[in-house]
Automatic annotation (TrEMBL):
Enzymatic reactions: 6-phospho-D-gluconate + NADP(+) = D-ribulose 5-phosphate + CO2 + NADPH
Chain's role: Catalyzes the oxidative decarboxylation of 6-phosphogluconate to ribulose 5-phosphate and CO(2), with concomitant reduction of NADP to NADPH.
UniProt keyword annotations, A-Z: Gluconate utilization, NADP, Oxidoreductase, Pentose shunt
Active site residues according to the UniProt entry: 183 (proton acceptor), 190 (proton donor)
Assembly mode: Homodimer.
Top-level taxonomic group: Bacteria
Domain (6-phosphogluconate dehydrogenase C-terminal): residue spans on this chain: 179-468
Organism: Limnohabitans planktonicus II-D5
InterPro entries: 6-PGluconate_DH-like_C_sf, 6PGD_dom2, 6PGDH_C, 6PGDH_Gnd/GntZ, 6PGDH_NADP-bd, 6PGdom_BS, NAD(P)-bd_dom_sf, Pgluconate_DH
Pathway: Carbohydrate degradation; pentose phosphate pathway; D-ribulose 5-phosphate from D-glucose 6-phosphate (oxidative stage): step 3/3
Name of the protein described by the UniProt record: 6-phosphogluconate dehydrogenase, decarboxylating
SUPFAM superfamilies: 6-phosphogluconate dehydrogenase C-terminal domain-like, NAD(P)-binding Rossmann-fold domains
Family the entry assigns: Belongs to the 6-phosphogluconate dehydrogenase family.
Gene3D superfamilies named among the record's database cross-references: 6-Phosphogluconate Dehydrogenase, domain 3, N-(1-d-carboxylethyl)-l-norvaline Dehydrogenase, domain 2, NAD(P)-binding Rossmann-like Domain
Amino acid sequence: MQKMDIGLVGLGVMGENLALNLARNGFGVCGFDLDSAKRNSFGQRTQGLKAQAAASLVDLVASLQTPRCVWLMVPAGAAVDAVLEQLSPLLSAGDVVMDGGNTLYTDTQRRMQALEGTGIHYVGAGVSGGEEGALHGPALMPGGATEAWPRLKPMLQAIAAKTDGGEACCEWIGPGGSGHFVKMVHNGIEYADMQTICEAYWLMHHLLGMSPAEMSVVFHEWNQGELASYLIGITADILAHTDPETGSALVDLILDTAEQKGTGKWASQIALDLGVTAPTIANAVFARTVSGLHAERAKASKVLPGPAARAAGPRDAVLGQIKHALLASKICAYAQGFSLLKAADREHQWQLPMGTVASVWRAGCIIRAHLLEDIRASYERSPDLDNLLMDSHFAGVMGRCHQDLREVVAMGALHGVAVPSFMSSLSYYDAYRSARLPANLLQAQRDYFGAHTYQRVDRPGKFHTRWNG
Ligand SMILES: NC(=O)C1=CN([C@@H]2O[C@H](COP(=O)(O)OP(=O)(O)OC[C@H]3O[C@@H](n4cnc5c(N)ncnc54)[C@H](OP(=O)(O)O)[C@@H]3O)[C@@H](O)[C@H]2O)C=CC1
Ligand SMILES: O=C(CO)[C@H](O)[C@H](O)COP(=O)(O)O
C-alpha cells in the first residue's frame, strides 16, 4: 500500500481542514481522531484524494512513510500529553512530531526536553486562520527542532496562505518554544485589535446613534484604506447581518459576555514576567473579564453614577477621529507585541527574525492587515529597532493620529463609555515618549517606607534618606 506523507491527529475544526488542505495540495494524509464520527466524516470529505482515516494511532503510524511526520491538532494541554504518551513509543529517531495547537510555549519546551535522547524531532507550530484559513491557507509559525524543517517545509509552505506577491506565510521561526511564543503574541495582538474595534463600534452606537447597518458601511469603507484588515472586514460583515427569525441585527441579540481560551491572558502574564509594558493587550483581556460580570454589571448600572452618553459632534468629524484613534491604538498594540517578542528573544537567545514574523502575518492569519507590510519594511530597515513607534513611518502615523486618539479617549471619559484599549494605548504612547516620568517620587516613597534606596540624577551611587527624621 502507498505510504502517506503526514499523519494528522485531531480531526476537529482545524485538523480536518488542514488535512484537506494538505490532501488537495497532493500530499498523502492519514487522519485520526478519538471520535469515530469525525473519522467517518474525514473519510467522506476526502473521497478521491490521497487520504484515509486510521482506526488507531498504531494504524496511523503504520501508514506513514519514514521518517514519519505527525501533526497534532488536538486541544492544548492534557490532550497533547495524552497523545504524546501513546504516540512517542510508536516512533523512531528521525521522525517529526509537530503540535499545531495553541499551546503554551513552556509546555512545548517541556515536551521537547522529555523527548531528548529519543531522536524524535519536536516542533511547536503556531497556526492561525480559523476554519477558513486551515482549509484555504493558514499562516504557519513553526519552531523547535531545526532538523525537522527540511521535512516540513515543502508541505507547510504549499498549504500556507500566500501574499499578493506569492510569498508563503510560513517560515521557520527559531528553536525551542519560539513558534508557539510567536503565536501567543499574535493572539495577544488579536485580543487588542478586536477590543479596539469593539470600542469604536460602541462609541458609534452611544455617541452617534448609528445602527449596525450604518456602521457596517463605515467599517467597509475603512477596510479599503490604511486600516484594511481581516478583523475590520469581518466586523463590517457581522454588523450587516440580520437575524432571519426576528429581522433585527444579529449583533444586537448576542449576549455581551466574551469568552476566552487563555492565549491573551498568557501574553499579558508573560509580558509582566519579562517586564514588558503591554497595557493595550492586558486591558483587552480585562475587558473580556469585566464583560463576564453580567449580573453584577446590571446591578451596578442602577447604583453607580456617571454621565449619560449623548450625541457628540457632527457624525463625519467624529467618525474621522475614531478612525485615526483605531489606527493609533492598533499601532500601539503591535508595538507592544513586538516588544514582547524582543524581550523573549533576549531571554531565550532565539534570534527571532522580526521582519519574517511580520511577513508571515501578512496573509492567512486573524491579524492580517495592510499595516503588516509597513511593519515588515520597518524591521528590514532596522532589525534592532527599540520599539515599533520609533520607526520613522510609524512615528509619522502617530504624529498624524495621536490628537484624535486623545479626543476619542476624552469623549469616552466625558460620556461614560468605557474605552480601555484606546485609553491604555494613549497612556502607553505618552509614557513611552516622556523623557521624564514621576517615578522619581515613587522611588522616594519606596525609600521612605522601606529603605529601598534611590539613584540621583546629579551623581552616581545608591542613596537612602531618613525622610521624617
Ligand atoms: N479553532 C480555531 O480557530 C483555532 C484553533 N487553534 C488551536 O488548534 C487546536 C485544535 O483546535 P480546534 O480544531 O478548534 O479544536 P476541536 O475541538 O474542534 O478539535 C480537536 C479534536 O481533537 C480531538 N481529540 C482530543 N483528544 C484527542 C486525542 N487524545 N486523540 C485524538 N484526537 C483527540 C477532539 O475530539 P473530541 O471532540 O471527541 O474530544 C477533536 O475532534 C487547539 O489547540 C486550538 O486552540 C489554533 C488556531 C485557530
Ligand atoms: O488562535 C485562534 C485565532 O488566532 C483561535 O481562534 C483562538 O481560539 C482565539 O482565542 P480565544 O478563544 O481566546 O478568543
